[in-house]
Amino acid sequence: MAFIILIIALVLLPSTFAVTLSTFGVTSNSSAATGKTFDYIVVGAGLAGITVAARLAENPAITVLLVEAGADNRDDPRVYDIYTYGEAFGSDLDWNWPADQGRHIPG
Fold first, then answer.
1. What is the pLDDT at residue 55?
2. Domain-wise residue ranges, the chain
3. Nearest 5°: phi and psi at 40?
4. pLDDT value at position 83?
5. I want to staple 53 with a disulfide (CB 3.0 to 4.6 A). Which of 37, 66, 75, 81 is the partner?
6. CA distance 19 to 70
7. 2 vs 29: CA distance, rounded Å
């Protein structure tokens, strides 16, 4: 199964006092995180996971590893285009996990 690793940090630029969010790495190669330590590891880059990771990374002294168990779909319009978002349901982007009593958990 493919997965994406996002290593997020916040960089403070003292000369302009501007805060910039920067990713140190986006990769599908798990060895990029091998042998490294992180203050926090967030599993799942859905709305909640990415928000938690971003908020943690607001502190420049903290390192955050964000792990997503899906493929890199950032270029797929079903992911980023609000008008094609509905096309993701029932597609390869929707894991459609089975739940109790024959129901499914989309996402």
1. 92
2. 1-72, 74-107
3. -135, 145
4. 92
5. 66
6. 29
7. 9
Q: What is the pTM of this model?
A: 0.58
Burial label for 60, CB within 10 Å (0-12, 13-18, 19+), is: exposed
Residue type, 44: G
CB 44 within 8 A of CB 5: no
Q: What is the mean pLDDT of each run of 10 residues along the chain (107 residues)?
A: 46 41 64 86 86 88 86 84 88 79 67
